[in-house]
Amino acid sequence: METFKKLKQYYWPYKRYFFLSLFSLFFVVLTTVAYPIVMQITVDDIIREENYGLVPVLSLVFIGIMIVKSISTFFHQYMGDYFGISTVFNLRDSLYKKLQSLSFHYYDNAKTGDLMSRLTADVELFRFFLSFGFSELVRITLLVLGSLSVMFYYSVPLALVTMASMPFLIVVVRKFDQRVHPAFRKIRKSFGRLNTRVQENVSGMNTVKSLSREDFEIDRFADKGDNYRQHYLNTATIWSKYFPLMEFIGNICVVSLLGFGGYLVMTGAIDVGVIVAYFTLIWYLVGPLMNFGFVINNFSQSKAAGERLLEILESEDEIKNASEPVNPQGVKGHVTFNDVTLTYVENDDQALKNISFDAPPGKTIGLIGATGSGKTSITQLITRFYEPEQGELLLDGRPIEDYSLKEMRKHIGFVLQEPFLFSTSIKDNIAYGNPEASMDDIIDAAKRAQAHDFIMAMPDGYDTLLGERGMGLSGGQKQRISIARAILINPKVLVLDDATSAVDMETEFKIQKALKEVMKGRTTFIIAHRISSLKHSDEILVLEDGAIVERGLHEQLLNNGGPYQRIYDIQYQDKEAILGENKQHA
Ligand SMILES: Nc1ncnc2c1ncn2[C@@H]1O[C@H](COP(=O)(O)OP(=O)(O)OP(=O)(O)O)[C@@H](O)[C@H]1O
Ligand SMILES: [Mg+2]
Prior knowledge:
It contains 21 helices and 10 strands. With 586 residues, the protein is of the alpha/beta class. Among the domains are: 2-313, ABC transporter transmembrane region fold (Up-down Bundle), CATH 1.20.1560; 418-490, 3-Layer(aba) Sandwich (Rossmann fold). The strands form 2 sheets. It has a 6-stranded mixed β-sheet, sandwiched between helices. A 4-stranded antiparallel β-sheet has the order 2-1-4-5. α6 (112-154) packs antiparallel against α8. The N and C termini lie far apart (83 Å). The structure holds adenosine-5'-triphosphate and magnesium ion.
């Protein structure tokens, strides 16, 4: 019940429909219970008394009852569904909203397929209980109570005898519940894993095919599929044992009714019509009790689904907004790191060690170093994608935690190492961070990013639709669109993470020339492997294993005898070698 209580805010706003549905249900049950009573009257007062004149009256009454039943069934159904569907709409929206606010840390460990199955299948399961399961529970209770009242009204001893085996039914139902709930949790988990496989496989199809790992993938999927099958079969076993057992116990009730009821008729304690009514009434007890298993099953599934939804809804937003966030106004873009240390995974090595630097407004900082040395990590701290373990990060002299996250991030433009494009038009992709931008602004940004020409060469120009993850563009084209996107938000701090790694030297040169102008008045962080990309920086930080091992201007570092000089020598030698080769060819 805890799960349902916690999710109350999502269904309670629609309680009106729920209660209307219950109200209609009341009439449904009332008319259902009237049915055996009509039977009893037919047998005892009409057939046995040979009172055939009453037939038309009784028929009319019966039709009346059935009309009421039909109408109330309609309202009961519709309102119940309305309640469930509206709740799910609300719930799914909130889940999606929550997914937007969760931190990078959460996504480091999250599996897309699993999240997908939570937002689709689990949400549906939860709805099913709200729409159907709960009211079924109420229907069962009302029907059992109604039938019992009628049974006791007709004959107390007969009611008691026919009910003698009910306790067994209840025990079986309880046992069933205890076994089926864990079984369903396993099914849901297994389904999430199955989804994850499909999702990962589809997005990694290039890698799979290029390494000829199709068979491996097929086997791996079969494993997961088999696991899912096993869990389902286990549950099916529980189910299939349950139903015959329930029906058997139900039939024992019928036998008691025949024996004891027959005896009562012979002694004249009850009329034959009562037995006829009892035949129906007994299944009004056994049926719901059997159904009770189904509803419990449904409830268990729903609870398991609800728990999985709550896992998302209740995950901590690790990166919290300040309690009284300051809206950054007139940001200058002064970024300061004071002795900053970062650890991604607890007890793991530090990804950044005692990083300190000062980037005054408008200056350019170059970051260079081997892969995995921590360049990207530094820039991710500026936007608070991750929280440092220790140390202080200032923007315009103020700790970044003081600012409103959203507002602060608006002032920081990021060209990610692996740019992501949506499957919309090129225009919309460029304007993603600034949807109000005019077409002129978009074109201007694209021109500066050296993207305009290739965009215009595409069939629909700026309206060209991209495939999933920007399919249909080369790596360098994606990078340039991503640069245009960053330029368009007109940020005070610009981070270019390997932004030109996938473009040729000539294009890089052009982009750099254009960027030089863009960078004016902005604090820029350039991450690059090529020295040519960052040699004009106001300060170059050379990283090794998460620590700054060298810093200074290009000219200073060049003859420092340190790692920078080594990198330069390698890249320079390459050039020499190529030039040498060219000479030989000539
Ligand atoms: N999300 C993460 N979770 C755990 N560890 C991470 C995460 N991101 C990076 N790391 C680790 O932190 C270290 C620094 O990574 P980072 O991405 O900053 O390197 P980089 O200098 O940008 O490398 P590259 O030039 O390849 O982009 C690496 O050892 C990496 O394995
Ligand atoms: Mg990186």
